[in-house]
Amino acid sequence: MRWSILPFDRKLNLILFLETIVFAFFILFSTTSKANKLIVVEKASRVLFLYKDGTLWKSFPCSLGWNPEQPKRREGDGATPEGFYTVWDKHPSRHYYLFLSLSYPSVTDLERAYWEGRLDKEQFFQALRETNIKKNKLKRRAKTFLGGDIGIHGGGLYRRGLHGLRRDWTFGCIALKNEDMKVVYKFADIGTPVFIYDARKPLFEILSPLVQYPYHVLAQLPQLPWEGEFLFDTPSLLIRVLIREDHNGLRRVWMWGYEPVAHRLLFWLVDYNANDRLDTMDRFQAFLPGAHYWTLEHLKALIIQNLPRWLTNRERREKLFKRSLP
User: Fold this and answer.
1) Minimal CA–CA distance to 271: which of 287, 290, 256, 260?
2) Per-residue pLDDT for 68 more than 90?
3) Which pLDDT score is estimated for 130?
4) Above 70 in pLDDT, residue 154?
5) Which among 74, 237, 87 is positioned nearest to 174, based on CA atoms?
6) From CA 38, how far away is CA 51, in angstroms rounded?
7) Domain 37-201, what fold?
8) Partner of 81 for a Cys bridge, out of 72, 125, 157, 161, CB 3.0 to 4.6 A?
9) Pseudo-torsion of CA 65, 157, 49, 170, nearest 10°?
10) Domain with CATH 2.40.440.10 in the chain
11) Is 248 a residue whose pLDDT tops 80?
């Protein structure tokens, strides 16, 4: 039937139907594209990675703060944060070419500082207010007791200092060559997740920034242990991990290894001091032949390799955990 002879109400209904279909496709595409992007910064190798749908797309060398070994704990310490953040804002910069503001400090950063006693309750709630007030109007994350204005920017890998060229020269940000920063800037959207970690550190320290309590619960029960549970469904092994630290500084890591399809338990282990080694007091028990070949070093490598896919599909990972394991 020709368009010109259709009744007006039929035309209107058809237009509304087509608009609905186009809008639905737009929402689906835009949501999926943002959710499946991830920026990872590995501090030990000084490399920034860009992932799409959990698959590595590009990587670039980067530089860190002038105190590169430590995670950021306070304003002015020159350390680059370690944890899970999002791109808060993006804009050109007079000093650093292009700038991606990160959501540091995160709620987990504030909770961890309160849990460790670095913030009292009043400071804790004040910092929560400062990081959330006027969200849509701030171009940069508000500074708190833990510092702020952390981001990814250009400016080059080296800066000249008193003793020649210096690789880690920022106040805590991640710096790239300008031509590389142009690619990262175009890749990132507002809300793109960013994970920063140091592969040389124990698995406990890599995973602990991903723990988050409801902040009102932690405020009322600060004696709670710092505890989190994770599931990593790698192609060769389903790994369930539980990490726990108490206020005496005692850290423990439990792991269970399952077959990916049948979900039969292959082994379990306890690393009582969370040092990534099975010492005399630690425990390992295998239930099927060959399971004893899984070492802590191998398991850590599998988990780190799987982290980008896990971080871009975190909700699915949690649902899989609840459905698959007792």
Assistant:
1) 256
2) yes
3) 77
4) yes
5) 87
6) 5
7) L,D-transpeptidase catalytic domain-like (2.40.440)
8) 72
9) 20
10) 37-201
11) yes
